[in-house]
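Good morning,

Both structures are done.
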Amino acid sequence: MTTPPSGRISRRIASITPSATLAVDAKAKALRASGAPVIGFGAGEPDFATPDYIVAAAEEACRDPRNHKYSPAAGLPELREAIARKTLRDSGVRVEPTQVVVTNGGKHAVYSSVLTVIDEGDELLLPAPYWTTYPEPVALAGGTTVPVVAGADQGFRVTVEQLEAARTDRTKALMFVSPSNPTGAVYPRAEIEAIGRWALEHGIIVITDEIYEHLTYGDVEHHSILEVVPGLADQCIILNGVAKTYAMTGWRVGWMIAPADIAKAATSLQSHMTSNVNNVAQMAALAAVSGDLSAVEAMRATFDQRRRIIHEALNGIDGVVCLEPEGAFYAYPDLTGLLGRPLAGRTASDTIELADIVLEEANVAFVPGEAFGTPGYGRFSFAMDTDDMAEGIGRIADLVDAG
């Protein structure tokens, strides 16, 4: 029998951390399937069905033989044109269809963008708390992620001063996200302008993830950094997709919008990695971005109601402090007041242990802050039924009160 070679998994692939958000969701679903009454706050997807007109477009596309064949790696021309129109309509940013690269979901857009611009030894500044996926393609490219932490005391928004303090001669890019996953924070226009002008001054590429652009609440507004600072046009990559706005997470259609040379290079990468995105899903996305925003307006009204409920409920737990979310569909409470306290005869020294205790003792799943670069916090999605939300938070409160 031949002995397998040592190190058969490459170092870079072996170093990739599995998605914590998907892992928590999978664990909750597995426990639920075994009969446990688990309530999961881990899922990062709308709990609504894709609008009927989008599904109808996909059904029609299935019957069109043109969609049974390969199509251009960068995306269907009509979809790229529609995305360019949608970007002008929603973000006030004028782009050419040739700058659009349609990807297999938002994660693919993140990977393609990072792998296209980051070289060995390059640094990417990453405001924390951050979505769990962002550091992984940087490491895969041989670059270094430099977290820049902004706590609840500053609304989870980094400042220019913090970014400047983290900048070195190896800094090549900044990942900028507003509205934020996991915190729900939204940067005001003035702060976006300051960050954009700083990046422009230092020649730093800005990769801006705008996937939650339509999910803001109250008087809070989303502003695209490229609309606020148009001078960034030659050093800005916009990431977006249909997943959150149109409840289409499973359809796997995202996109990146980049300067011509970056878009061309990313298309070359995609031509070897995946070829075209599923044509039927692309036609569904075409219907989505070409239609009005009435479906997302209805979702947003529901999310707005839920965010208020979860914000109040979390702050009602002894030892928990939570800022009111301004965007996306996540609350990100400070849970340090629960650490070191007895909970069902157990104590947690960090939020990873706390999440395990809460899941095992209260049948409630949430994602610990370690996954987002900020231990001591937890992410709670409110993309869920209101009754389940109240029951889940109530179970945690009961666990804490019982000591």
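Second structure follows.
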Amino acid sequence: MNYFLDLDSDFELAVSESSQVLKEGGLVLLPTDTVYGVAAIPTNKSAVEEIFKRKNRLDDQACAVLVSEASQASELVVSSAEFELLSQKFWPGPLTVVIERADHLDYFLGGDESSIGVRCPDNDFVRSLTEVVGPLAVTSANRSGVQTPENAKEAAEQLGENLLVVDGGKCKGKPSTVINLLANGTEILREGALSAEDLIAAGLRL
């Protein structure tokens, strides 16, 4: 059985309950500024593996890491001029930046262990939660190959039981744009809420 919390009814309770579940190794289904996601503490390998199991997805496709602000992200990555530009121009917002992972980082995210995809969402709840528990491993709340539902109840039905579900109403945003800073040139891996034109207008060379 899943446990639902209405975000509009008690924001602070949602933050405190979610923090507790995450710290105990559980998963939280939560709203973001784009789509519903499912989150775990990235240093807890078994919790992140549980996300992949519930989604019926191989762990070769990494979870992104959501942060409260750019300064929190800077501790996770090997920064660059392009990273600084993108984080200043588009965060908080729907942009995931794939970049070299900091050497000291003990995160299990799936995928390539030398890289990390980071994002600061334009969502007060997620940012408040990451201020309390630190960065979160998050991916869309859906079974692999199935569109992410717009509401919390349907998302929870796809991912099974024993989840804390934070209901924030409909999440109808486009997925985040994903940009790769690992290659010699900057590359868009997925064009989502931000277009190539948006990125070029901000001064990025593609």
